Amino acid sequence: MLPLKSAVLSWILAVNCFMLMNLGDSTRVAQEEVDIMEQIATTMGATHWKFNGESCQIEAVRVTTDLPSWFETDVVCNCSIGNDTACHIVAITLKGINLPGVLPPELVKLPYIQKVDFAYNYLSGSIPTEWASTQLNSISVLVNRLSGVIPKELGNITSLTYINLEGNRFSGIIPDELGKLINLKALILSSNQLEGGLPVSLSGLVNLADFRISDNNLSGPIPDFIEKWKQLTKLELHATGLEGPIPLSISLLNMLTDLRISDIKGPMHEFPPLISMTDLERLVLRNCNLSGVIPGYIWKLKTIQTLDVSFNKLIGTIPDDISARSMLKFVFLSGNLLSGDIPASILKNGINVDLSYNNFTWQGPEQPACRQNTNYYINLYKSSAVAGTLKQSEMQNKERRRVGVRRRGLWDKFMTYTQIKSGDGRIIRFY
Ligand SMILES: *[C@@H]1O[C@H](CO)[C@@H](O)[C@H](O)[C@H]1NC(C)=O
Ligand SMILES: *[C@@H]1O[C@H](CO)[C@@H](O)[C@H](O)[C@H]1NC(C)=O
Ligand SMILES: *[C@@H]1O[C@H](CO)[C@@H](O)[C@H](O)[C@H]1NC(C)=O
Ligand SMILES: *[C@@H]1O[C@H](CO)[C@@H](O)[C@H](O)[C@H]1NC(C)=O
Ligand SMILES: *[C@@H]1O[C@H](CO)[C@@H](O)[C@H](O)[C@H]1NC(C)=O
Ligand SMILES: *[C@@H]1O[C@H](CO)[C@@H](O)[C@H](O)[C@H]1NC(C)=O
Predict the structure, then answer these.
(1) Which residues pair with 29 in a beta bridge?
(2) Where is the signal peptide (predicted)?
(3) Is residue 132 lining ligand 3, measured as CB closer than 6 Å?
């Protein structure tokens, strides 16, 4: 029974192939490309591979282990590209199929390849320098076991718009040459072991919309030149190793919807000027050595859903005129020096509020934060200097934990989360 079952499991029939060619015509994938696809599959560690050049479909790929339900295999062909009548492979997705091999240098032999997605495998080695001569526009090797330096030759693939190297073991410095990738819209390097500073050359990436470099071992300041990334909508700098202060020039990034910075060393400084970021949805400035007050405009942002400024030295009060139309769902102010009353306006249906470890006024049973039968989740543990503020039913299970290393180091040991068990037993966890 068992051998049969595993034999069945190890055969994957591709069902999600995307065909752009006319079946039944004489057009088909050029035979060289069919052969090269087989070499590629072998290099990547598939033990069996069957690709149909007539239909541009992967018919079988065999690996040795069981697969997650969300695996994805796909080859895309385009029959109107190139100077001949054949169809050509333009994209390959081999995702979540536990491939144990290496990235295929043979990719260069597919003259029209544009996109590769090899996420969630066990691929090792580095990025083949041969890829420098391709016209790729998208590379994802998210969560693998790739190591070594990021090859400077990557900077030669100026057609690239998307690079995702997150969740690998790349080390060494970020090569200057990446600054040549002027078409780049996303550069995602989080959860590696990169060192050194952000090279100045990156300031030339003026089309960048998404930059993520969390969980690395970088050094030096968060550079001023991030202001050049005017198209940026997402900036994620959790536990990068980079130092504060957060540069004032960040104020120019008015397209940001998602700004997350945490765990920076460096001098105490005031809340950065974010008034131009009118579309912010998620703002995380956690453990950034911020002092002074939270500017009033932050509470008035129409689109903001998550506000996490915990573990700073912020003072002042929460305004009592937060709009009822506010989209706020998570407000984490834990570990500051905030004071005053907790206004009713922050307590809305379904909102999660963590006010623990502050200097708020003691909340008696008659005050909004402590009313019974409420439909929000509020943590008041040690939120005031007066003893007895613990709201037992909600707070007793609050814990702060270190995150274990999840799948192959995607999360770093420095990242922490807080877990709160609310009155109704719901577990609230946030990073
Ligand atoms: C196929 O390639 C041609 C030529 O580059 C391009 O114009 C067309 O959009 C491509 N087709 C698809 C579906 O990507
Ligand atoms: C067609 O394209 C191939 C590969 O890109 C190239 O080697 C060949 O010289 C081209 N042929 C013509 C007639 O342009
Ligand atoms: C990369 O581009 C530079 C010029 O910008 C060139 O000298 C070098 O040979 C190229 N490297 C590769 C591997 O193509
Ligand atoms: C981080 O980099 C420093 C040098 O800047 C090095 O001494 C240290 O060992 C590195 N830490 C890790 C975890 O790689
Ligand atoms: C925060 O700022 C203070 C004062 O500038 C400084 O003494 C302290 O070391 C800083 N904290 C960190 C974690 O850098
Ligand atoms: C806490 O608030 C009280 C009055 O509300 C104030 O006297 C005290 O200085 C505050 N403590 C800190 C550490 O800010």
Answers:
(1) 87
(2) 1-26
(3) yes
For the chain, percent of residues with pLDDT exceeding 90:
66
The distance from CA 382 to its chain's CA centroid, rounded to whole angstroms, is 32
Burial of 49 (C-beta count, 10 Å sphere; 0-12/13-18/19+): middle
pLDDT at 258: 98
Question: To test ligand 1's pocket by mutation, which of 18, 20, 76, 78 has the most ligand atoms within 8 angstroms of CB?
Answer: 78
To 10 degrees, the CA torsion angle through 360, 366, 372, 374? -60
Reported CATH class of domain 2-352: alpha beta
Residue 387 has pLDDT above 70, yes or no: no
Percentages helix, strand, coil for the chain, rounded to the nearest 5? 15, 30, 55
| Ligand 1 centre distance from Cα of residue 20 (Å) | 9
Distance from the alpha carbon of residue 174 to the mean position of ligand 1, in angstroms: 33
- 208-212, 294-298, 346-350, range with the lowest pLDDT: 346-350
Q: How far apart are CA 35 and CA 27, in angstroms?
A: 17
Residue with CA at minimum distance from ligand 6 atom 14: 337
Strands (E), 103-250: 115-117, 138-140, 147-149, 162-164, 169-173, 186-188, 193-196, 210-212, 217-218, 234-238
For residue 368, how far is the Cα from the chain centroid? 37
What's the pLDDT at 43? 97
pLDDT digits (tens, 9 = 90+) for 225-269: 999 999 999 999 999 999 999 999 999 999 999 999 999 999 999
Q: What is the pLDDT of residues 34-58, one digit of tens each?
A: 999 999 999 999 988 999 988 898 9
In whole angstroms, what is the distance from residue 352 CA to residue 421 CA? Answer: 11
Which residue ranges have their beta carbon within 6 Å of ligand 5? 265-268, 289
Pair of tokens at residue 343: 């206004």
- Side chain identity at 317, as an amino acid letter? T
111 lines ligand 2 (CB under 6 A): yes
Q: Which residues line ligand 6 (CB under 6 A)?
A: 337, 339, 359, 385
Ligand 6 atom nearest residue 340's Cα: 5
User: What is residue 300's predicted lDDT score, i.e. its pLDDT?
Assistant: 93
The confidence score (pLDDT) of residue 162 equals 98
Residues 6+ apart with CB under 8 A from 318: 299, 333, 338, 340, 342, 343, 346
